[in-house]
Design brief:
The structure holds two protein chains of two kinds. Chain A is an all-alpha fold. Chain A has two domains: 46 residues, no CATH class; 240 residues, MetI-like fold, CATH 1.10.3720. Chain A is built from twelve helices and no strands. Chain B has 14 helices and no strands. Chain B is globular. Chain B starts with a helix and ends in a 5-residue tail after the last helix. The chains are: A mainly alpha, B mainly alpha.
Chain lengths: 311, 277
């Protein structure tokens, strides 16, 4: 009661003070649960993981946990598997993004044109996106399996294979398995995003261009592409980061094999943590991956700046 | 000119058909093998449809395997995650849509950051953090982890739905004496029901599909989710193709149902979480 400083205020003034406090606190109350979860379940483990990179953390060894300085990074520097994983990551990401983008763009252009049954066709071609990734991986692994799947027999029938074998166990070709599965699963993402951008282009632009005598190809290069360019740029850049981190399909289809030919950095991290239970080394690789991704993002931001300055 | 456009139309339809076939073929094959009886599995290997259909694999999987348990676990985890995330994300999305407040910029930046860094980095530290709390090998632990992972994306998605609702409605309610929260609960939320449904669908699908953290955090059969159970089954009984694919078809059902549910909101959802799958 002694502390009731507002006691002397008229009723209306007091209410407005309480009001002001609640109004100030309100957005924080709304965002607090989300923020707390993000900080405890994502940010704290991130920091903890960074510290593991400099410690010896083995799950099954109760005496581990001491600081080892840069030891993990010295091992990493000489780890051929890591360099192979790095090269594989470039190959996996580049091929997946390029194919998803090209086929996604074609699909978006096809769907941009009205035709009977468009709604149902659209639902069917977008369906792969809803298939859980573990099932996508297993499904394609089965399709490539000559015992149960048709693909090796078809490739053999076409003369592309000397005998129906599983490409997932062929070191030269194995990476194509997860890439094809990834393209199948990821085309809808590009198609949906690009379709939305296509439908935002004002239709009268095309009519005006047609009246001025521009052919279909000319209209595509002078209207469609420039309008799509920002969407294409942002989608491809973000997707590149996402796919380079996307290990599910590889873990499910090949677990990085045969002979580490399909191991990407993300799946290598997972294998080190999950199979070898070497959390320290896994975190050191993760730290390097994080730095590489940061460098890539910075490069993109700088590139954008240069292009903007020139324009 | 006319023959050219007829040709163009035909080409367009053929191209669409190719895409539809490519999209559906793997799922068709899954279904086909799951209804092929064991004695025809190898003799009719590349036939498009078995000469005789049978549901023996489904019967076996439902009656004599642990898949009903995995299915139930996944339902619990994905369902609980979807409900909690949608609840919390509608609050935070509303704050981002309606308020300007100190630190808002940093909050958005933090949420964008969580969408950019490799989540696989967190596999080891999260295991270490949850294990003394008894949250490894538990469905609760998975729900907590999945909730945190999905909140940023769901917040942006809900924000985009709230942005589409005119502010005047709440202002009118506030003039009539309602608090902001009352206006939010009684006026804005009912209008956002389609958005809430979409968010539920997106989060459910994401939680239903998650594999790596479930593999790391769950070790026994009793708390295994469907992906973990199916992968364990595949590595143990890699010759029972019929049963594996019957289980695969079961895993597909909820995902497809939710897809039909959220189909109309795909564009909004994918642009809100442009970095998420």
């Amino acid at each position: 009661m002694v502390f009731d400083a507002t006691a002397g205020f008229p009723e209306s003034r007091r209410r407005s003070l309480v009001d002001r406090i609640t109004r100030h606190a309100e957005p924080y109350l709304y965002t607090a649960p989300a923020l707390i979860l993000i900080v405890t379940i994502m940010l704290a483990p991130l920091v903890l993981g960074l510290s593991y990179a400099f410690r010896d953390v083995h799950l099954l060894n109760p005496f581990s946990g001491g600081y080892v300085g840069l030891d993990h990074f010295r091992t990493l520097y000489e780890d051929d598997n890591f360099y192979r994983a790095l090269r594989n990551t470039l190959w996996w990401t580049g091929a997946s993004v390029l194919l998803q983008f090209v086929f996604g763009l074609i699909l978006a252009l096809l769907l941009d044109r009205p035709f009977a049954g468009r709604a149902i066709a659209q639902a069917l071609v977008f369906l792969p996106w809803a298939v859980p990734t573990f099932l996508t991986g297993l499904n394609w692994a089965w399709l490539f399996n000559p015992v149960i799947g048709p693909l090796p027999h078809w490739l053999y029938g076409l003369g592309l294979m000397s005998e129906p074998t599983n490409i997932l166990s062929n070191p030269q070709l194995a990476m194509w398995g997860p890439i094809i599965a990834n393209v199948w699963w990821g085309i809808p993402f590009f198609a949906i995003t690009l379709l939305a951008a296509l439908q935002a282009i004002p239709r009268d632009l095309y009519e005006a261009a047609a009246i001025d005598g521009a052919g279909a190809f000319r209209r595509f290069t002078s209207i469609t592409l420039p309008f799509l360019a920002p969407t294409i740029a942002i989608t491809v850049l973000l997707r590149t980061v996402w796919i380079s981190n996307f290990a599910d399909l590889i873990i499910v289809m090949t677990s990085g094999g045969p002979a580490d030919r399909t191991q990407i950095v993300a799946s290598y991290i997972f294998t080190q943590a999950f199979r070898a239970l070497d959390f320290g080394y896994a975190s050191a690789i993760a730290l390097v991956l994080l730095v590489l991704l940061l460098a890539y993002s910075m490069l993109i931001v700088m590139l954008r700046q240069v292009l903007m300055d020139r324009a | 000119m006319n023959s050219y456009s007829t040709f163009g139309t035909a080409l367009h339809r053929v191209a669409i058909l190719c895409y539809v076939l490519f999209a559906l073929f793997p799922l068709f094959w899954l279904l086909k093998v799951s209804v092929t009886p064991n004695d025809l599995l190898y003799s009719e290997g590349v036939r498009m449809w078995p000469s005789r259909m049978s549901f023996e694999h489904f019967r076996f999987v439902l009656a004599h395997s642990a898949f009903p348990v995995f299915f139930r676990n996944s339902m619990i985890v994905a369902g609980a995650t979807a409900v909690i995330v949608t609840l919390l994300a509608s609050l935070s999305g509303y704050a981002l849509s309606r308020f300007t407040f100190r630190g808002k910029y940093w909050l958005v930046a933090l949420m964008l950051l969580t969408q950019m860094f490799p989540l696989v980095m967190l596999v080891a530290p999260i295991f270490k953090m949850l294990s003394p709390l008894g949250l490894t090998n538990s469905l609760t632990g998975l729900v907590v982890v999945y909730t945190a992972f999905n909140i940023p994306f769901a917040t942006f998605l809900m924000q985009s739905f709230f942005d589409g609702i005119p502010k005047e409605l709440e202002e009118a309610a506030k003039i009539d004496g309602a608090t902001q929260f009352m206006a939010f609960r009684q006026i804005v939320l009912p209008l956002t029901l389609p958005g809430i449904a979409a968010t539920l669908g997106f989060v459910f699908t994401a939680a239903w599909s998650e594999l790596l953290f479930a593999l790391m955090l769950i070790s026994g059969n009793s708390a295994a989710t469907f992906p973990v159970g199916l992968l364990t089954f595949v590595s143990k009984f890699s010759v029972d193709f019929g049963q594996m694919m019957a289980a695969g078809v079961l895993a597909l059902i909820p995902a497809c149902l939710f897809f039909l549910f959220i189909q109309r909101y795909l564009v909004q959802g994918l642009t809100a979480g442009a970095v998420k799958g």
